[in-house]
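ok new one. same drill as before - C-alpha cells go in, u give me an amino acid for every spot. 415 of them this time. try not to just spam alanines like last time pls lmao
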C-alpha cells in the first residue's frame, strides 16, 4: 500500500528545525509492508496544505501529516483540515481530560491556549495522544485515509508505533513484500564502488534495487526487493543470492551486514564480550563519546571520556610524555598512542580510542597540513594507530575522524 508523508512547518522550510519525523515514519512503514512514495514539506499556509493534500491523493491512498497542532496562532493544521473535509471544530471533553492528566503529571498549570487543543474536527476519529497534549485525528474520504499527528518527534513516534501503524495494518491487507539488506563498505569512493558493481547491478532481477548511501569514509549499500506478497519466497531467495555475490566481489571491504549504525555495532560487540570502552579526544572534542552514548544502554560498556584539547591535559591527565609532545608534536603517532594507553589506565576500560589532529581551518604546517589526523585504539595487549589526511573543512574533518575511529575500534574488537 502506497503512503505519502506531508510535514508542515515554516521552521522546516527555513532550516531552523531538521525533519527527523519523516525518516522515522518511513522506516517504520517499510518495516511493516507499506511503501512510502513521496515526502512533501510545506509551510504554515492553508492553501499550501490543501494543495499538498490534493496532490497526494492522486498518488497514495494513505496520507500521513505531521505538524501545526500546537496552541499558537501559527498552528493552523486542524482548521485547514476542517475546511478540506467540510467539518467543524468542537470541544472534546475526552481530549481535555487527557490534556489535564498530562499537565498534572508534569506539575504544570492549564491555561486558555492549552484548552484550545481540545478542539477537534467533528468528522474525524480522535486518537488520544498519551504522551502529549496535541490530539491525533484520523479522516476517511472515499478511498483515502488521512492522519494528522503532532510534529513533536516523541509524540509522533509513540502514535505511529502504538496506534497508527496497527490501525493501518488492520484496515489494509498488505499486497507487497518489502525486504532490505544493508551492508557497510569501506575503502572505496562511491564512483569506484559503482564501477566495481556495474555488471552486478546490470544482472539484478527487475524487482530489486541497489542504493548507494555514502557517509564520510563509509558507504552503506542497500539491496531492496519489492515483490507481491505471494512472491515473498522468491524475493528472499534473490536477496540472499545477491548478498552472497556482493561478499565475493567486495571481500574484506564489506565489513558488516546490517542496517545498524557503527556505534550500535560497537556497543553490541562490547556488550556481548562484556568489555568496556573509553575515549581520549583532542581534535574530535568529545564527538566519539557523544555517538557511543547516544545508544540506549551504553552505560553497560562506556566508561567515560577525556577531552584532552591542550598539551597540559595530555601530559598531566593522560600521562603523555612532555618530551614527546615537544619532539614530535601533539599530532603524531607517539602522542596519540600514549593518549590511548593513558585513557586505558585513567578510565579503567578494556578498549580506548584516541584522536589528535588538525581539524582546521588554521593550524596547519607544510609538514602537517590541515586535515592531518592520527587515530589510535588501545587494549591491554597492544595499541594500533593510523594517520589520515582529510582536509575537507573542519566539520567534515571531524566527522570523518569519528567514523574512522569507530571503524578502527570495530576492527579491533572483532579481531
Amino acid at each position: 500500500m502506497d503512503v505519502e508523508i506531508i510535514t508542515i512547518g515554516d521552521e522546516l522550510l527555513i532550516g531552523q528545525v531538521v525533519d527527523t519525523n519523516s525518516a522515522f515514519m518511513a522506516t517504520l512503514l517499510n518495516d511493516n509492508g507499506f511503501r512510502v512514495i513521496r515526502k512533501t514539506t510545506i509551510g504554515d499556509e492553508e492553501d499550501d496544505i490543501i494543495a499538498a493534500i490534493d496532490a497526494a491523493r492522486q498518488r497514495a491512498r494513505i496520507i500521513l501529516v505531521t505538524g501545526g497542532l500546537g496552541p499558537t496562532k501559527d498552528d493552523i493544521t486542524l482548521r485547514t483540515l476542517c475546511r478540506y473535509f467540510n467539518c467543524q471544530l468542537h470541544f472534546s471533553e475526552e481530549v481535555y481530560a487527557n490534556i489535564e492528566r498530562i499537565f498534572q503529571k508534569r506539575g504544570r498549570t492549564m491555561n486558555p491556549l492549552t484548552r484550545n487543543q481540545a478542539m477537534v474536527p467533528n468528522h474525524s476519529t480522535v486518537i488520544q495522544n498519551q504522551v502529549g497534549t496535541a490530539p491525533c485525528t484520523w479522516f476517511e474520504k472515499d478511498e483515502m485515509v488521512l492522519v494528522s499527528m503532532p510534529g513533536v518527534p516523541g509524540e509522533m513516534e509513540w502514535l505511529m508505533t502504538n496506534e497508527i501503524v496497527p490501525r493501518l495494518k488492520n484496515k489494509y491487507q498488505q499486497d507487497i513484500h518489502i525486504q532490505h539488506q544493508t551492508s557497510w563498505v569501506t575503502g572505496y569512493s562511491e564512483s569506484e564502488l559503482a564501477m566495481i558493481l556495474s555488471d552486478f547491478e546490470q544482472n539484478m532481477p527487475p524487482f530489486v534495487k541497489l542504493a548507494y548511501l555514502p557517509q564520510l569514509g563509509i558507504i552503506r549499500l542497500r539491496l531492496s526487493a519489492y515483490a507481491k506478497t505471494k512472491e515473498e519466497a522468491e524475493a528472499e531467495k534473490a536477496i540472499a543470492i545477491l548478498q552472497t555475490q556482493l561478499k565475493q566481489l567486495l571481500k574484506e571491504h564489506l565489513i558488516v551486514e546490517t542496517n545498524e549504525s557503527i556505534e550500535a555495532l560497537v556497543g553490541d560487540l562490547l556488550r556481548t564480550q562484556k568489555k568496556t570502552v573509553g575515549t581520549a579526544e583532542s581534535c574530535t572534542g568529545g564527538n566519539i563519546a557523544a555517538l557511543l552514548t547516544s545508544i540506549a544502554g551504553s552505560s553497560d560498556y562506556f566508561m567515560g571520556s577525556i577531552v584532552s584539547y591542550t598539551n597540559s591535559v595530555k601530559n598531566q591527565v593522560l600521562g603523555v610524555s612532555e618530551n614527546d609532545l615537544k619532539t614530535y608534536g601533539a599530532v603524531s603517532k607517539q602522542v596519540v598512542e600514549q593518549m590511548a594507553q593513558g585513557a586505558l589506565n585513567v578510565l579503567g576500560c578494556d578498549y580506548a580510542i584516541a584522536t589528535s589532529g588538525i581539524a582546521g581551518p588554521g593550524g596547519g604546517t607544510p609538514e602537517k597540513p590541515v586535515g592531518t589526523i592520527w587515530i589510535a585504539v588501545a587494549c591491554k595487549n597492544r595499541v594500533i594507530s593510523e594517520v589520515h589526511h582529510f582536509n575537507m573543512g573542519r566539520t567534515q574533518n571531524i566527522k570523518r575522524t569519528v567514523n574512522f575511529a569507530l571503524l578502527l575500534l570495530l576492527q579491533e574488537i572483532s579481531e
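The CA atoms of residues 63 and 271 lie 40 Å apart. and btw The mean pLDDT is 92.
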